[in-house]
Prior knowledge:
The chain has 67 residues and is mainly alpha-helical.
Amino acid sequence: MAAFETTRPAPFGAISIFRFVQFVSDAFLSLSNWNDARVTRKALGNLTDRELDDIGLCRGDIEMIGR
Length: 67
């Protein structure tokens, strides 16, 4: 019965490239989430007090929901 070594070191630079791609991906995701919250706050801010009351919100809730 033969035993094989299956673990190999990563190629030179592969880990650095992976971390850079992960950083860019995380930055893009954070920017996307921030923009979604901004759009939500803006849309809710444009509603009248009566419309907000119809959906069970008040002006003070807008900032909390945007987060």
